[in-house]
Amino acid sequence: MTENKSIIDLARAAEARPAPTEQPPPTREETLEPEEGSAPKEILSELLKNVQSKIGWSQLRLPSAGFNPSKIETIEIRPFTFEDERLLRTTKTISQGELIVEQLISRCIKGIEYKDLLLIDKNYILFKLREISYGDSYDIKAVCATCETENELQVELSKLPVVYAESGEDLEHKVILPDSEVEVVIKALKLEDETLLSDPTTLIDNMWRVVESIGGHTERTVKQGFIAGTTAKDISVIRNAIFGGSIGMQTKVNFVCNACDTGAVLELPINEGFFDAS
Ligand SMILES: [Zn+2]
């Protein structure tokens, strides 16, 4: 997972697109509360018969697979309704975007509290919400590092592999630091960690919080002292490891440049089309 896929991007995405004035998808809410003089229920049920199965709740296994602090393995999830869509489109500022993503996820999942989600599970839920609400194919652009050609790619979200934890240890991440040669164990990030780690300055100050142990030591003073005392190279390795766990949706995409045939790997971005049908 990456720091790039933040709620800030989502907020920007929501902000950057036009309001959904034309033809919002028909939903159950609309059928339940017909306006005066509108179509009878029987007609609407007939027209919406193919939609019913697409707006219901379905089971979703979390990548943390029961090894998260809440010990929850499977939750329920449903696609966006017209009301959710309206909420999404009301985002005006980046700070609002954060709140709206929280509200949207809270409305569309059952079985776990939003605040108790691990970051890997939240990211997976975001991609699932996109897939079940707007469809599987997701258009992205990738600029070739060799010839700078902009490639247009279509990713099938349901084909991205998901790695599930098989033990609590799978959620931790171990690295041997290059200079101190000490082993550092990094915890699975919680949602509150995302905020602390989103800014490069606060990241350094708060790094000790997401470090489980350093050379087997778990005391806060040892962790803080080590981080303050070791080299920039060691710190850089810890920083990369924080966002580099292997559990969750695998969002690295391989592509071959149309113009020069160079192969490259791209971290799947969340762009302005993320919450939109292609
Ligand atoms: Zn190229």
Would you mind describing this structure in some detail?
The chain is α+β, with helices and mostly antiparallel strands and 278 residues long. The chain folds into 2 domains: 8-16 and 51-162 and 249-267, no CATH class; 166-246, no CATH class. It has helices at 7-16, 28-32, 41-47, 49-52, 82-89, 94-108, 119-134, 191-197, 200-210, 220-229, 232-242, and strands at 58-61, 74-77, 109-110, 137-143, 150-156, 162-163, 173-176, 183-186, 211-214, 248-249, 252-256, 263-267. A 3-stranded antiparallel beta sheet has the order 1-2-3. A 3-stranded antiparallel beta sheet has the order 7-8-9. Helix 1 (7-16) crosses helix 6 (94-108). It starts with 6 loop residues before the first helix and ends in an 11-residue tail after the last strand. Bound molecules: zinc ion. Zinc ion binds next to loops. Zinc ion binds at residues 144, 146-147, 149, 257, 259-260, 262.
- Our measurement of the CA-to-CA distance between the termini, rounded to an integer number of angstroms, reads 24 Å
Radius of gyration: 21 Å
Give the helix level as a range of percent: 25-40%
| Largest β sheet strand count, sense and barrel closure | 3 strands, antiparallel
Low-confidence stretches: 1-8, 14-22
**Quaternary organisation of the protein chains:** single chain
Q: Write down the overall geometry.
A: globular
List cofactors, ions and other ligands. zinc ion
Mean pLDDT: 84
Beta fraction: 15-25%
The number of E-state strands comes to 12
Could you give the order of the helices and strands? Answer: HHHHEEHHEHEEEEEHHEHHEEE
User: How many structural units, i.e. domains?
Assistant: 2
Strand order of the largest sheet: 1-2-3
The count of helical stretches stands at 11
Structural class: alpha+beta
